[in-house]
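User: I'm putting together a teaching handout on how sequence relates to shape, and I'd like one worked example. Could you take S-(hydroxymethyl)glutathione dehydrogenase from Lasiosphaeris hirsuta, show the sequence you're using, and then write out its predicted structure as tokens right after it?

Assistant: Happy to. First the sequence, then the structure tokens directly below it.
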Amino acid sequence: TAGKTITCKAAIAWEAGKELSYEDVEVLPPRAGEVRIEIYYTGVCHTDAYTLSGKDPEGAFPVILGHEGAGIVESVGEGVTNVKVGDHVVALYTPECGECKFCKSGKTNLCGKIRATQGKGVMPDGTSRFRARGQDILHFMGTSTFSQYTVVADISVVAVQPDAPMDRTCLLGCGITTGYGAARITAAAEEGSNLAIFGAGCVGLSVVQGAVAQKAGKIIVVDVNPAKEEWAFKFGATHFVNPTKLPEGQTIVDKLLELTDGGCDYTFDCTGNVGVMRAALEACHKGWGQSIIIGVAAAGQEIATRPFQLVTGRVWKGCAFGGVKGRSQLPGLVGDYLAGKLKVDEFITHRKNLSQINEAFDVMKGGDCIRAVVDS
Ligand code: NAD
Ligand code: AHE
Ligand code: ZN
Ligand code: ZN
């Protein structure tokens, strides 16, 4: 198949707000510096639903969504040296070129090399590798994993241990790595520090896992869904608070200040709700507490607080992909999984086939889904 166009199935998002369409797509061969991957499994993340909804200012259609994918390299374009045919890989929506200003800064995992074309839904040379119904289909987040085959830039893929099952490693392509990295890398929470995690989905529960690995003190999960209490404790939370069940007159900020003798050392927004983001910032300890925004808020939403909150030493920050550098650090996370130090299996609550992708989106929106894994 190398060098030839492959016709396979993909889930195409033709228009914002409409269901995905499972149909034939032509996947062109990889050009120089590109890799064609046979996708075996992909997770579905809320960010896919967010872009499909039409609320993502970068959303463009028609497009093949999906950014939590694992598969095997089918062929490589000229000059590709970091992966070879047959490698088991995870697609990286946060690439790592190792050469740009961002990669060399030592301060961030964001890579600038292909961000502009990635945001426009095309390969670094400005063109697409997908065709359907006689027209070009756009790429998404440099990954487009809702397809049996995809083409990505070589800096957007990492080879991982082949003995790690791909229906698990796909989840390291976003949700789990994002939360785990936010606790361990972005916050780098100190031993004994008190944390509050708003939102106990895949991302929030992964922050809890990272907090346990950092030997945090209090690990307080805040969620409006009472069913999340059991999930929170399963991953190592020490406390669970449902903000809708507080006594009359007590706010979630009051409650967290009371539980932590004046405020948390680190808080995490894993909801994407800007009101929650404000509470998370204000629940930080005066003088040093840091609040980390992970949730993706819809277009037009803005955060607000009194500047005095920052004047008095609270810090507002955020991260993408948990601050993890995919090519350097993902094999280490897969190693942690294989060594039994990182839970992954536990996150899988639903399984679907690619032809049932719309059902995967539906279950994701229900309160009992942590992650749906899709078999292509
Ligand atoms: P999820 O929907 O599975 O989990 C969100 C949780 O928040 C749910 O349990 C829900 O009950 C809870 N919640 C909703 N409103 C709340 C409120 N007012 N107070 C407390 N809890 C509330 O989502 P997820 O897959 O874990 O993703 C979380 C967010 O992170 C999404 O916005 C997603 O788009 C974003 N995300 C960001 C990155 C990144 O790199 N920055 C990566 C992955 C996901
Ligand atoms: N395109 C949106 C922003 C979406 C966003 O923030 N994406 C995160 C990853 S979410 C994964 O589930 C991200 O990687 N951000 C950094 C980046 O460079 O996109 C918008 O609002 O324009
Ligand atoms: Zn995601
Ligand atoms: Zn770079």
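A couple of points you could highlight for students: The two ends are 18 Å apart (CA to CA). The chain has two domains: 6-173+344-375, 179-319.
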